[in-house]
TrEMBL record:
Domain of life: Eukaryota
Protein name per the record: Transposon TX1 uncharacterized 149 kDa protein
Signal peptide region: none
UniProt domain Reverse transcriptase: residue ranges: 114-314
InterPro entries: DNA/RNA_pol_sf, RT_dom
Length: 314
């Protein structure tokens, strides 16, 4: 049964940018090159964020984020992790660290102490497998596969601890209309609110403008320098920003093609899929929305707007 499952999911050929690749070597090389391009920053354009005011966390909140890591805090995060998720390059699942905590806690806490004091950790902890999961049966194009990051257990624990810290303050700097990844809010609320707005317009005969923005692969498109400037504007301290920089800038990827690792390359943009990154991405996404809609409303003053109705397309 295992062999049949392997044959069924073997990628014998793949279409990348409209070109079919069928030889094993070219398939592996083509996939690695595609992801390397995806995770490489190739734009010199930098957004100007100097003129926009953002909500800020308090100095007390910034200081709390940078407190030394305590054993109970780390152990609590470890207990909350899903122990059965697939392991990364180190081969250890979360269940291993949970079961062996009493034996390994001194070494783990030493890692957290070094990270707190020197803002860094062993780069090998952030080595990541990318495994390609087909989104549908008969997947042929590379876009038909969903890349899943298999991170090492210790790095996932570090990301979990940082995520637990930032989620306590992120709600105060993110707009009230952002529903995902903020404690006490649900992503489905966005659809319900949009439906209510449209229904209200139609009933009252009001005019309005609806924008649907495509943010496909948003995590993979984040410019690191932009993210750092946003977090600084939001009041996050120097040490916290250096921690985040260490997390995002040390990642290296190897793509699993038919169960075998191919390539080993760094990234220069994007945030991956660690537990921490949805919360970090919120600050980046909210800043992008401020830039977009700020420019939109400034320009709208000179528009001669033609109302096309709620059902029209932009």
């Amino acid at each position: 049964m295992a062999n049949a499952h392997r044959r069924r999911h073997t990628m014998e050929r793949v279409k990348i940018s409209g070109v079919w690749l069928s030889e094993e070597r070219t398939v592996r090389t083509g996939i690695v090159d595609a992801f390397h391009r995806l995770l490489t920053e190739d734009s010199e354009w930098k957004a100007d964020i100097g003129g926009v005011n953002l909500n800020r966390i308090s100095q007390q909140e910034a200081n709390i984020l940078e407190l030394p890591f305590m054993e109970e805090e780390v152990h609590s995060a470890l207990r909350d992790m899903n122990g059965d998720k697939a392991p990364g390059l180190d081969g250890f699942t979360g269940a291993f660290w949970q079961f062996c905590w009493e034996f390994v806690k001194e070494e783990v806490m030493e890692m957290f102490k070094e990270f707190h004091e020197h803002n860094t950790f062993l780069k090998s902890l952030n080595a990541t497998f990318l495994v390609l999961i087909p989104k549908k049966g008969g997947a042929e194009e590379l876009g038909d596969f969903r890349p899943i990051s298999l991170l090492g257990g210790l790095y996932k624990l570090l990301a979990k601890v940082l995520a637990n810290r930032i989620k306590n303050v992120i709600g105060g700097v993110i707009s009230s209309d952002q529903n995902a990844f903020v404690s006490g809010r649900q992503i489905l609320d966005a659809s319900l609110i949009a439906n209510e707005v449209i229904d209200s317009w139609k009933k009252e005969g009001k005019k309005g403008l609806i924008c649907k923005l495509d943010i496909e692969k948003a995590y993979d498109s984040v410019n690191w320098q932009f993210l750092m400037r946003v977090m600084e504007k939001m009041g996050f301290g120097t040490k916290w920003r250096e921690w985040i920089w260490s997390c995002i800038s040390t990642a290296k990827f190897s793509v699993l093609v038919n169960g075998e690792p191919a390539g080993f390359f760094p990234s220069s943009k994007g945030l991956g899929k660690a537990t921490l990154y949805p919360h970090i991405c919120l600050s980046w996404e909210w800043r992008c929305r401020v830039l977009f809609f700020g420019g939109l409303w400034k320009g709208a003053a000179s528009w001669d707007v033609e109302y096309r109705g709620v059902g029209g397309r932009l």
